[in-house]
Each structure stands twice: as structure tokens, then as C-alpha cells.
Amino acid sequence: MATAVVHYAAAAVSDRGRKRPSNEDAYGFSVEHGVFIVCDGMGGAAAGEIASSIAVDEVMGLLSSRSGEQPAGLLRVAEQAICAANDAIYSRSQRNEKLSGMGTTLVALVVEESRVWVLNIGDSRCYRLRNGSLTQVTLDHSLVEEQVRMGRMTRAEALRSPLRNVITRALGTQECVTPDVFELEAERGDLFLLCSDGLTRELTDSDVQSLLGVDFPLDNLCGRLVRAANKAGGHDNITCLLVRAEG
Fold first, then answer.
1. Cys bridge to 234: 18, 44, 89, 203, which one at CB 3.0-4.6 A?
2. Domain boundaries, the chain
3. Residue 207 backbone phi and psi in degrees, to 5
4. Taking a C-beta distance cutoff of 8 angstroms, is the pair 245, 5 a contact?
5. Which CATH class is domain 7-246?
6. 220-241 as b/e: b if 16+ CB within 10 A
7. Structure confidence by residue, pLDDT tens digits, 110-162
8. H or E segment to which residue 42 belongs
9. CB 11 within 8 A of CB 218
């Protein structure tokens, strides 16, 4: 039986990793407004960093300024915010040749009491840990993951594939993009993880479940995840945002 959730707690850590010269990930959250977001930018020079920052700023700004919205309307506002972010990134890249083709992944969590909406574009993910069991909520928009879902590639082949970095949907790379949307009912004690692929490329779901399965403060748990990903190689930027449902 789902239990109405009256509030949430959150913490986040973002790290450059051990191989990349800069951090193109970005995140933002407002417990007060019930919005949490992680983006992983892509593009030459500093374009990825610019794209991810624009996305976070646009989505956070629009969702944090909403007022008087009924719960049923929050999803509509979230989708409008993501469209606005896409427009902002795309138009910026069109105006500046050096930023041409820049884009970003996005995974966002929007909450209203026990109602939870997860929206994603690209291969940044949302997981839910409930009663010690970790479940991936989102589906990656990546070439290898789509091949796996169609039965054309095994999971082991996907992990070894030289095409594993190819994503099939991104924010800001074209005029229009549509996020996947997942609606959930949160229960007291649920722990949601939003993360960039710098975490999931280094750690298995079993690793993440084990690292989260201890009663530590959220910022400590984020630190555990980042340290483990760096220890495993740290080949990419690593961002973890944890959101806990508390009654």
C-alpha cells in the first residue's frame, strides 16, 4: 500500500572523474519546489558544459516559478520546461558556429506528495531503491541499449561495443525532442538516484545497490558512489543526485 509522502530530502555530488579535463555534467534541485535534474553535456570545446548548464537553468527556473499548479498539471509544466530548454540550446548553437551540434542528456524527477514523474532524454538514468532492491526506471536512448531491447545484441555484447557512446536522442541537437515519461507512486523510504553515465559505465546495478544499501546521510551515499566509480576507472564525469521520500 502506497503511503502519502509529505516531504523529500536530497543531496548531490558531481566529479570530473580521473580522465576528463573538465566537467560537462550539471545538476540542480529544489526540495521546496519538488524538482531534481541531472544533465550530461556533449560537444566540442566547452559546448557540452554550456548545453548542460542551459538545460538545468531553464528547467529549474520554469519549474521553480510555477504557482498554483494542480498536481495533474505538473507534468505539462515539466514537459514545457524541457521544450524551452531544447529551444534555448538549439538556438544558441545555431547562432554560434563553435557551439554547433552541442547537446545534453537530461533526467529529471518532479514530485507532488507521493506522485512522482520521471522524464528522460539520452542515457542519464533514474533508479529507485525500495526495500533494498534497485530498479532502473528509465530506458536509455542509446544505440546499443535499443539493440539489446530489440534482441539484436546481448547485454555482454553491448558492454563491449565500440558504439556504446552513441546516443539516439539528446536535448538541443534538433528543433524538437520528446522525453520519455514515467509516473510512479512513492512510498516512505524510497530512494531515487539520478545519475550521468559516468557512474553506470563504471559500476553495475548490483554495485550501486550495495553502495546504497547502508543507512548513511544522503551526501555520504553520493560520495560513496563517486569514489567507487573513480576507483573503477573514472573514465567520464560522474554526477549522482539522491532523493529520499520521507513521511
1. 18
2. 7-246
3. -60, -50
4. yes
5. alpha beta
6. ebbbbbbebbbeeebebbbbbb
7. 999 899 999 999 999 999 999 999 999 999 998 887 788 888 887 777 777 77
8. strand 35-42
9. yes
Cell numbers describing residue 31:
526540495
Q: How far apart are CA 139 and CA 141, in angstroms?
A: 7
The answer to whether residues 112 and 74 touch, using CB atoms and an 8 Å cutoff, is yes
Strand partners, 91: none
CA end-to-end distance (rounded Å), the chain: 14
Q: pLDDT tens for residues 164-203? A: 778 899 999 999 999 999 999 999 999 999 999 999 999 9
Radius of gyration of the chain (CA): 17
d(CA 89, CA 194): 22
Question: Under 8 Å CB-to-CB from 141, ≥6 apart: which residues?
Answer: 120, 121, 122, 123, 167, 168, 169, 170, 180
Cα–Cα dist 106/207, whole Å: 23
User: At residue 158, what is the residue type?
Assistant: A
Q: Is the pTM of this model over 0.85?
A: yes
Beta-bridge partner residues of 3: none
User: In terms of Cα–Cα distance, which of 33, 174, 216, 28 is closest to 106?
Assistant: 28
Displacement of CA 211 from its chain's centroid (Å): 18
The DSSP output letter for 23 is -
d(CA 46, CA 21): 11
Q: 10 Å Cβ neighbour count for 111?
A: 24
Using DSSP's 3-state secondary structure scheme, residue 17 falls into coil
